[in-house]
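User: what does the whole thing look like in 3D?
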Amino acid sequence: MLQVELAGLKLRNPLILASGILGSSASLALRVEEAGAGAYTTKTITRDPRPGYLNPSFIDLGIGYLNAIGLANPGIDDFAEELDLMKKAVRIPVILSVGGGSPEEYEYVVKIGAERGADAFELNLSCPHVKGMGAELGEDLDVALEIIRRARAASGGRPIFLKLSAHYNYLGLAEEALKAGISGFTAINTLRGLAIDVYARAPILSNVYGGYSGPPIKPVALRVVYELYENFGKVPIIGVGGVDSWVSALEMVLAGASAVGVGSAIAANGFEIFGEIIEGLRKYLETEGFRRITELVGLAHERSV
Amino acid sequence: MHLAARIESIINVTSTTKVYRLGYRGPSPGPGQFFMVWIPRVGEIPLSTADYEDGELLLAITRRGRVTGYIHENLRVGDRIYLRGPYGKGFNLPRGGDKTLLVGGGAGAAPLLFLAETIRERGGRCDALLGFRSGDEAFFLEEFKRSCGSLFLATDDGSMGSRGAIPDVLRQILGERGYDAIYLCGPEPMMAEVADLVRGTGLRLEASLERYMRCGVGICGTCVLDPLGLRVCRDGPVFPLEVIVRIDGFGRWWRGFDSRKTPI
Ligand SMILES: Cc1cc2nc3c(=O)[nH]c(=O)nc-3n(C[C@H](O)[C@H](O)[C@H](O)COP(=O)(O)OP(=O)(O)OC[C@H]3O[C@@H](n4cnc5c(N)ncnc54)[C@H](O)[C@@H]3O)c2cc1C
Ligand SMILES: Cc1cc2nc3c(=O)[nH]c(=O)nc-3n(C[C@H](O)[C@H](O)[C@H](O)COP(=O)(O)O)c2cc1C
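Assistant: Here's the predicted 3D structure for the full assembly of 569 residues, as structure tokens:
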């Protein structure tokens, strides 16, 4: 009923843990699997270790969240061992999120990841708050395509998703990326944002700028997913951004997503969010008379006569 | 968002610890819960509630590095501190009739004071064993004396109370007193020794743990305990003995801000 196939990956249901949330250890991967997720995305891993930005690096704004973790991660050489443990701990696919400052760095991380059995890769060309990484690379088409080519060559034939930002010309990038052989898209990453405390009279995040996530960004995410589907048809899309219920998960699917990422919602709803969404989707399919969730992908695109 | 809290008083309790009394109008914390404390343009760190009553929040801050050092040197009465929280799962209060001992090492005394006060307010009574490097680092002694039955004291150099480390003194007390429950907070190697000591005795033990933290709400994964997948900020910081004895590297290593394992 809820099984989906995503660029060759078989998922028991369309829910994927989004990158950067509980993505650092095998023990968390197991908890996410037990909670019901269909796949697990690691936090973005770079070639070299990164301590990330100083705290405050995360705030609950009441209307969504702002974070500037700064791509903190142990570096792929250290993380390789954790990836081994993850592969042993869980049966759901493990998607390695890959970051870096140059095509060579992306290539290196993908190569080690492929050796350690990552089931798929997600190229983070969309992190909005780290200089010289993420979204900045996605803005430079030549660099982005070089990253995709090198990642493909190093991936051992496993699927590669491109994680897009809503900030740049994502449709132009997506079109070229498809020509370069990308397997699908993850949309969207956080939106570049800022928060100020009026008594401190200062920006709250140590990095000043951060990434905005949570329910308020859902309309933006839906728009990007909808446009991708409109332009590229049945290409696999992982819809991410503000999903916090079965209703919002379904909105993503109707807009064209074959799978749905869940991130910030865990802050408010805990691990239980996965079970709640799955339960809701099942009931919806039954009461609305659908046999499979896949029948619903992109249905919102049918035009009125 | 953070809540601004005015510093009403500062007491230099030792050369390394200061106690800050704040006017605070947010949600009431329970014993064992903590706040993420932001000093604008400096940083944000987790701090336990050392006491709380009717809009007055007590923080006991021991100097450790950059942010705690800044607080000690620069913050004055009337300045503001910015808080988000209270976060985490705190201590389960002792069951009625339990003979209870609080065991705190150094800065670990802070969350236990709030617990002692809460137990007393509910009509219970507990004892406390506090350990410090030396007598001039000891703090909250009067406060613990007020809310506890017996107060045992240990210092590494013997300058106050018994000479020796907490586990040595605890070994003696446990033999003499027949406790049912122990509440523990302090340096992790000490906690590991105490956990070993208590293991298999049937005593109930809860300990408050420290880890590098970022989000405070259980989504970034920085403070994970392996191989359990428990997050100190949200599933803890207080955990029972049964959990503690299963933590990889307890008392020996934890994950740094880049998630790499680093010695404690
Ligand atoms: C739940 C909890 C409650 C705490 N309660 C108290 C308390 O009541 N009183 C008190 O004095 N201290 C308490 N601490 C410890 C306090 O958070 C650290 O001493 C403080 O973060 C050090 O910051 P710094 O900038 O001065 O030190 P730094 O220069 O940053 O580092 C010194 C050391 O402090 C620790 N540390 C630094 N940042 C963090 C962080 N974000 N999270 C966890 N550890 C960190 C690391 O071990 C580091 O090596 C608590 C910690 C936790 C996790
Ligand atoms: C704390 C936090 C850390 C994140 N870290 C990453 C990351 O390392 N790599 C990445 O591609 N996206 C990262 N993201 C973005 C999420 O994967 C997701 O795209 C975004 O938060 C929108 O989804 P949501 O509203 O469900 O959270 C992070 C988000 C948050 C809240």
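In plain terms: Chain B has a mean pLDDT of 96. The pocket of flavin mononucleotide (ligand 2) is lined by residues A 18-21, 43-44, 58, 65, 67, 69, 71, 97, 124, 127, 163, 189-190, 213-214, 217, 240-243, 262-265; B 219-220 (CB under 6 Å).
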